[in-house]
Amino acid sequence: MSNKEKVSLVSIAFVLFSIILLGLFYLTKSGQTVSLTLAYAAGLSMIFLPCTLPLAFIIVPLTMGEKPKKGIIMAVLFGLGVSITLSFYGVFMAVIGQYLGLDSATRIMFTIAGTAALLFGISELRLIKWTVPSFSGALPSFIQRQGEYLRVFTMGLFLGNAGVGCPNPAFYVLLGYIATVGEIGTGWLLGFVHGLGRATPLIFLAILGILGVNATGFLTTKKQVVDKLMGWALVFVGSFILTYGVFGMPWWEDSVFHASWNKFIFNIAPQLAEAPGHPVAQGLFVAPFWAGWTLFLGLVGISILWATSKKMVSRKKALLIVAFLFGLIILAISGTIEAEHKHGIDDVHTDDPPSLDSFGGAREVGGHD
Predict the structure, then answer these.
(1) CA 42, 166, 333: angle at the middle one, nearest 5?
(2) How many CB atoms lie within 10 A of CB 126?
(3) In a 3-state reduction of DSSP, which class is residue 187?
(4) Is 338 helix (H, G, I), strand (E, B) or coil?
(5) Which of 25, 52, 54 is nearest to 37 (CA)?
(6) How far apart, in whole angstroms, are the C-alpha atoms of residue 178 and residue 192?
(7) What is the pLDDT of residues 120-148, one digit of tens each?
(8) How would DSSP label each residue in 101-163?
(9) What is the mean pLDDT of residues 328-344?
(10) Could you tell me which residues come within 8 angstroms of residue 26 by beta carbon, excluding any fewer than 6 positions away?
(11) Is residue 343 within 8 Å of 276, Cβ to Cβ?
């Protein structure tokens, strides 16, 4: 990497970091009204939520080891895919959201997106051969080379579903406003801008990865390792989203893992945490708490055993991991990892998401010691 490229990447990273800080600072102010600024700032804050953060583990390995220009294009295309998917949610909420609610739309989209992400993951691990259709044959070579970019963009489209049902107060205000106004154009624009906000920290992290890779040269020589990490991250995230679609969110929202993380975020920055008492999306099927964990961990475990049968994972390592996953399933069945249904926030007694008028005081909802 030339010095000029390094300076350019550092400059872009600095600008993105500044934008992220300004956006988060904006959310700490009271009395905001719904606007493109609020939509974008709410998107920025979603990176801290436990069902959005895993996207960083997809895009960062994906761009590591690539040349700066290519890596940035891949990160931007991934973010664009995320933004387009969220714009669809904005349109949906504008048309029928006020009648059916967000849950009715997400359960099918989660299932489809999770399945696709899972397929992406096991294909990256070379367990199956499955690629995104791309141009070939007599078409110009320039078009034929776009297959990799198309794959990244498609990943963004599918994984843009992650975190839709894991909102912070600002996101709930945004959805409620779109449903109330009922204008397709407004819904599309606010949803798209919100998606750009979610994509910005991901692009920032990807640029840091590109800088780190080119500074050390380590991952450039370990491309196969990076591909495996990305494949396993996709398997994990895909299984997670698929389980959301099938069984809804109670299995995750009511777990000690989610509750602990959300309580941590609430204690240091209440405006960035999930809304206390917000509705929890239901899936295609109603099932007990342990069923979600069994499906999620089961999909991951089966993938590991599958890779072991292909001699891609050592038997000893696979058995240890699968034993750990099985132990978590047992804990889920026994109720040990099930938390009180308050999203980790103590003494919260509201069942309603914050309204437009109350958003400015959302950080004061519910006391905590």
Answers:
(1) 160
(2) 13
(3) helix
(4) strand
(5) 25
(6) 12
(7) 778 778 887 755 443 334 434 443 455 67
(8) -HHHHHHHHHHHHHHHHHHHHHHHTTSS--------TTS-HHHHTTHHHHHHHHHHHHHTTTT
(9) 81
(10) 32, 37, 38, 41
(11) yes
Average pLDDT over residues 18-29: 82
Q: What's the CA gap between 224 and 81, in Å, rounded? A: 25
Residue type, 67: K
What residues are paired with 338 via a beta bridge?
255
Q: How far apart are CA 277 and CA 50, in angstroms?
A: 17
Which residues are within 8 A (CB) of 291 and not within 5 positions of it... i.e. 6 or more apart?
Answer: 247, 251
Closest CA to 289 of 342, 327, 329: 329
Domain boundaries, the chain: 3-350+360-364
Q: How many angstroms separate the CA atoms of 216 and 263, rounded? A: 37
Report the alpha-carbon distance of residue 90 to residue 163 in Å, rounded.
14
Three-class secondary structure of residue 76 per DSSP: helix
